[in-house]
Amino acid sequence: MQRIIVIYLIFPIVLGAEWNYLLNGMDWPDLCATGDQQSPIALDTQDSRILITPRIYFGDYDVPLKGPIFIKNNGHSIQMDIPETINGMQPFIRGGRMEGSYLAKGVHFHWGSPNSKGSEHTIDNRRYDAEMHIVHRNAKYKDIVEAVEKEDGLAVIGVLLQIVEDPTDIPTGLTKVINAVVNIPIDESNTTIPAGFTLDEMIGDINHNDFMTYDGSLTTPNCHEAVIWTVFTQILPVSYEMVSKLWELRDHWDKKMMNNYRAIQETNYRPVYHRMGNA
């Protein structure tokens, strides 16, 4: 039987049967089970290698995106397509451990429940309430389908979110996206929001120059080992009200979409690097 590739906008990319988070990915087959460069991993600031490298350059992250901006509930997460900016350019990143430019293509989220944390990566044995992924494609490949087959195909920025009382300065873009999820409560529902915010306004003022980085995989099937991961070490404070909107979404089986994160994977002696400070 010919296998059919199903592409949900940017991610996830799935071959064959549907999948779920009942065991947080421990039952996923094929490369998800056999790969040796899988993600997420437990990040340890004391056991990482100090990275001396140029800072990451965030190109056009400070230019407003062109609207309307498309957001979808794909039954596993919510995801936002990243359009061009008002100057006609696609936001991109370069620097760090990346060679060349990587174009920003999509944003999606992982979270827990009212009683559990839901970030995919942990830092120093601590899991946080949620995690935002900004997915980028290597500009030298024509599309995501080609890029996932290349070891340098993708670069993902990970931002860990923590619920705090009375957070100040929650990024305005992030607030607009999360507020919109009330309009996409069920699988395959979608909505649009007006433009007028930048990708910088999804991340906020956390330190862009202090991060952990390693070679890994997508955290959804088929778990392609094509990702240069960059996870900021500074945590982004958010409100309970904001994260609780995610807990009310319904998944592919019309159940509450909770704990949609993959379990921690073995590092398998991969080097994990830490770039520190503002230099």
Describe, in plain words, how this protein is organized in 3D.
The strands form 3 sheets. Strands 4, 5, 6, 7, 8, 9, 11, 12, 13, 14, 15, 16 and 17 form a 13-stranded mixed sheet that branches. Strands 1-2 form a two-stranded antiparallel sheet. Mean pLDDT is 93; it is low at 1-17. The chain has 279 residues and is mostly beta strands. The protein has helices spanning 31-34, 144-147, 172-179, 200-203, 240-247, and strands spanning 5-7, 13-15, 42-43, 49-50, 56-59, 69-73, 78-81, 92-95, 102-111, 122-123, 130-138, 154-163, 190-193, 211-216, 227-232, 236-238, 273-275. The longest helix has 8 residues, at 172-179. The chain has a single domain, classed as Carbonic Anhydrase II, CATH 3.10.200. It starts with a strand and ends with a strand.
CATH class: Alpha Beta
User: Which range best describes the helical content: under 10%, 10-25%, 25-40%, 40-55%, 55-70% or over 70%?
Assistant: 10-25%
Q: In CATH, what is the homologous superfamily?
A: Alpha carbonic anhydrase
Query: How many domain modules?
Result: 1
Q: What distance separates the N and C termini?
A: 54 Å
Mean pLDDT figure: 93
**How many runs of DSSP E, i.e. beta strands?**
17
Q: Would you tell me the structural class of the helices and strands?
A: mainly beta
What's the architecture in CATH terms? Roll
Radius of gyration, whole Å: 17 Å
Q: State the shape.
A: globular
Q: Give the uncertain stretches in residue-range form.
A: 1-17
CATH topology title: Carbonic Anhydrase II
Main β-sheet description: 13 strands, mixed
